[in-house]
Specification:
The protein is α/β, with parallel strands linked by helices. The protein contains 15 helices and eleven strands. It starts with a helix and ends with a helix. Bound molecules: malonyl-coenzyme A (MLC). It comes from Dioscorea cayennensis subsp. rotundata.
């Protein structure tokens, strides 16, 4: 078939689809405003410096010289700085015997601190909340964490609660998706999304490298996010959601198994991160972009993208569309340096584009599903987010999933937020770990 004819047909189809889609969603009251969000900053006594990480590694009697070398090498090379936070039981040396209370307290500390601040600064109260979604992947007590929030804040009896567990690092976008779908069914609704990860009860004490990696990357963090579809609150909103795309490539066995909780050969429970994870992330990302592109790209860009797709195997090594024409800021999950660099390469992003994710990895580590909100906070604290700017949030998570959403900034944003006391220090002159000298022998050994 003539390529020009095929291209024209596809373009006409997408235009019509997009038009009717907009009309449909307008009718269904799709508006989803992000009113405000607060990221958690644990107290200074929870800081995990490289030296303290070294001590934790040394007290694990299951590790030999080979494992020590591996861990210290990854810690020093990971792009993670000296000021990230860990859970209290691990800092206190009880990583091998966590109690239920350790897990509960870690979540309470994060959620109550961020919610108190969010209610305080937004002027809304717990009684205003109609929908509550909590996502914490690796800790699911009964009654659930959402019920603990309802109990603590004495929320209304008609509140709708949802507790998502096991959904991995892309879960906060899933929570937003759930909220926007609920918004379509009811006007003037207020929703809270609470996103975090449980680190304390999930420390791995064995000697399998792919499971030890999680101890190096994952750090304490969390975020509370206030959303509404009430048009009257439009002027108070920071951002509005334009489109959200979820991709799940779990049918692919290799991708499904690259990030999962399991027991090692000696029975130690932990979270396995395969060396193939960046490959699975790239696959899920490509599938996500393929569905995102027609929804956000202008006609010309879309035509170039489709043409490249048709000729993919022959000419273009990177067939991804030029999202920079419609996206001003890229808010990337801080999965690890390899994940950030991989996304940067496939989208053709600059050092400036990747700075928020790299700096967030340095200051807060991989805080799992909440990491996107620290990255957004960095952009805001750096006064990068101006009215009408578009922010593309991209997250990856076990399953394997890639979930993305495009948001529009509603007004110039300049809150100091969780970055307030350190934003002036970023980006630092070097990201090289200060203990590099001390541990240089590791790289040379
Ligand atoms: C771990 C790294 C920071 C290490 O970077 P380096 O610069 O040190 O270089 P490198 O890649 O050569 O790795 C150093 C050594 O670690 C080994 N190595 C790397 N990844 C490994 C893995 N998954 N399992 C076992 N070993 C691994 C390498 O073979 C090498 O060993 P040797 O020295 O013997 O050759 C990076 O590779 C990285 O960012 N990887 C991706 C991390 C990741 O999977 N993140 C997603 C988290 S999950 C998530 O966020 C979502 C979710 O859970 O839902």
């Amino acid at each position: 078939m003539d390529i020009i004819f095929m291209l024209s047909a596809i373009l006409v189809f997408y235009s019509l689809f997009h038009f009717f889609n907009l009309l449909y969603h307008h009718r269904r009251n799709q508006t989803c405003y992000l009113l405000d969000y607060v990221c958690f900053k644990p107290s200074d006594d929870r800081k995990l410096s490289t030296e303290l990480c070294g001590d934790i590694v040394h007290r694990n009697k299951n590790l030999g010289l080979k494992e020590h070398k591996f861990l210290l090498k990854v810690i020093v090379n990971s792009g993670i700085g000296e000021d990230t936070y860990g859970p209290r039981n691990i800092i206190a040396g009880r990583e091998e015997m966590p109690t239920l209370e350790d897990g509960v307290e870690e979540m309470d500390e994060c959620f109550f601190a961020t919610l108190d601040e969010l209610f305080g600064k937004s002027g809304f109260s717990a009684k205003d909340i109609d929908v509550l979604v909590v996502n914490v992947s690796m800790f699911s007590p009964a009654p659930c964490l959402a019920a603990r929030i309802v109990n603590h804040y004495k929320m209304r009896e008609d509140i709708k609660t949802y507790n998502l567990s096991g959904m991995g690092c892309s879960a906060s976008v899933i929570s937003i998706d759930l909220v926007q779908n609920i918004f379509k069914t009811k006007k003037k609704t207020m929703a809270l999304v609470l996103t975090s990860e449980s680190i304390g009860p999930n420390w791995y004490s064995g000697n399998d490298k792919s499971m030890m990696l999680g101890n190096c990357l994952f750090r304490s963090g969390g975020c509370s996010i206030l959303l509404s579809n009430d048009q009257a609150l439009k002027d108070r909103a920071k951002m509005s959601l334009k489109c959200l795309v979820r991709t799940h490539i779990g049918a692919n066995d290799e991708a499904h198994h690259c990030a999962l909780q399991k027991e090692d050969d000696n029975g130690y429970l932990g979270f396995h991160l395969s060396k193939d994870l960046p490959k699975a992330a790239a696959l899920a990302f490509a599938a996500n972009l393929q569905r995102l592109a027609p929804r956000i790209l202008p006609m010309k860009q879309l035509a170039i993208y489709i043409a490249r797709k048709i000729h993919q195997s022959s000419k273009h090594a990177n067939p991804n569309p030029n999202f920079k024409s419609v996206v001003d800021h890229f808010c990337l999950h801080t999965g690890g340096s390899a994940v950030i660099e991989g996304v940067g390469r496939s989208l053709g992003l600059t050092k400036y584009d990747l700075e928020p994710a790299r700096m967030t990895l340095h200051r807060f580590g991989n805080t799992s599903a909440s990491s996107l909100w620290y990255v957004l906070g960095y952009m805001e604290a750096k006064k990068r987010l101006m009215k009408n700017d578009r922010v593309l949030m991209i997250s990856f998570g076990a399953g394997f999933k890639c979930n993305s959403c495009l948001c529009e900034v509603m007004r110039d944003l300049d809150s100091g937020n969780v970055w307030e006391d350190c934003i002036e220090d970023y980006p630092p002159e070097t990201l090289v770990n200060p203990f590099m000298d001390k541990y240089r022998w590791i790289n040379e050994a």
